[in-house]
Design brief:
Blueprint (H helix, E strand, L loop, with lengths): L4 E7 L6 H20 L6 E4 L6 H13 L3 E8 L9 H6 L4 E5 L13 H6 L2 H14 L5 E4 L5 H20 L3 E5 L13 H8 L2 E5 L1 H9 L3 H14 L1 E2 L6 H24 L4 E3 L14 H8 L3 E3 L4 H13 L9 E10 L6 E5 L9 E9 L11 E7 L2 E10 L4 E10 L14 E5 L3 H10 L5 E5 L4 H11 L2 E5 L5 H14 L2
Helix pairs in contact: 6-12, 6-14, 8-10, 9-10, 10-11
The protein binds manganese (II) ion.
Length: 495
Amino acid sequence: MKNYKFWFATGSQDLYGDECLEHVAEHSKKIVEYLNQSGLLPYEVVWKPTLITNELIRKTFNEANSDEECAGVITWMHTFSPAKSWILGLQEYRKPLLHLHTQFNVEIPYDTIDMDFMNENQSAHGDREFGHIVTRMGIERKVIVGHWMDEKVIRRIASWMRTAVGIMESSHIRVVRVADNMRNVAVTEGDKVEAQIKFGWEIDAYPVNEIAEYVQDVSQADIDTLVEEYYSKYDILLEGRDEKEFRDHVAVQAGIEIGFERFLKEKNYQAIVTHFGDLGALKQLPGLAIQRLMEKGYGFGGEGDWKTAAMVRLMKVMTEGMKDAKGTSFMEDYTYNLVPGKEGILEAHMLEVCPSIADGPVGIKVQPLSMGDREDPARLVFTSKTGPAIAASLVDLGTRFRLIINNVDCRKPEKPMPKLPVATAFWTPQPDLATGAESWILAGGAHHTAFTYDLTAEQLGDWAAAMGIEVVYIDKDTTIRGLKNELRWNAVAFR
Ligand code: MN
């Protein structure tokens, strides 16, 4: 990841005299300093000289375009700044834009206020002029309103910064497809050319044996070292299996982890898909190996699902370095609990759930897969954290992409499931299971999701808006009547 920074550009004009412009610069420097010292922002804010002419505005935006570390510009109109001067700069600007609608003072200085103060402090006026032109030009941007010292405002800026980094990093996501998609499955398919146009994703297929060669080339010594790490880190759940046979099965996954990671690094891929039905020379379906790679930050999708793999990688990037992160994973809707008052969805996959979402101990089990024709694969098993999270599904509707984002509430399953040999999560979709699932199905959502505790629907939805695709939110405010109308209207808006 790059050491991203955000530029702070204050707008004004030369109508108010040098003294006023000195104050404007002084104030915006103070704001930048305060924001950086708040300890709440994941990335640094860089102060830029006050923008007062077409030339300087255009030059600054073009410098922001070409500066590799700049992930976005934050604009604020301290005074009035005639918005026609922003047109050329905005036309040429290509990175995320945040319009921070703030003002230097918190309170109206009732006793001393005069027309000089009014002219110097007119964000309420100048920011409307600026907002008008951005809207007229149809530019997607974020608007955040409030005083710059208000913690809620700073937290919203912090949240937007992660969206901006997602927008910047989306075009660096490269997905390797190990073999093709699972035959006959609809929802894991999609238009890869359109995905590259919209999101910047590069999605390439390789014959499975080309990656299997990397696995075969891993030395026994490297495998033994990694198996030792597994044995020291995870609970070994033999469940009656022979100890040596168990260890041999685990060692196969260690070889896959090392071989796959070498392949991904050498060829510069950040996400991967596999398919249990096309494993070539691989002895087991990659289970434990993929779980570990996801934990390291790689995206993953099962059965060739490259859209979900890229979304998981995107979420990993957007949450990178987050303090107290609870985790991000590929996930699949499996089985319902329909007992009134206890409704929820048991989430899992055949094997590949990321241990970053684990709550409590993580164990290793070796069990038959009951699908495909390979050895019993080793996998990590655990249950997941509780609390609010989001599950997202990117679908290709033939004429466009739609991102569906559902707020979900994760809870502990009511009882242990000792015979289930996979990692799980259990959640209730908002607003409730029946409405949430009905909405999801009406919106065409997949059974695979990209899941995270660490992003909000707003952050992911803003990313999608920046990509120019349709977003459908399913949350506490969703009603079926409202959703059906929204889908109908979107069909017109996005055709
Ligand atoms: Mn699946």
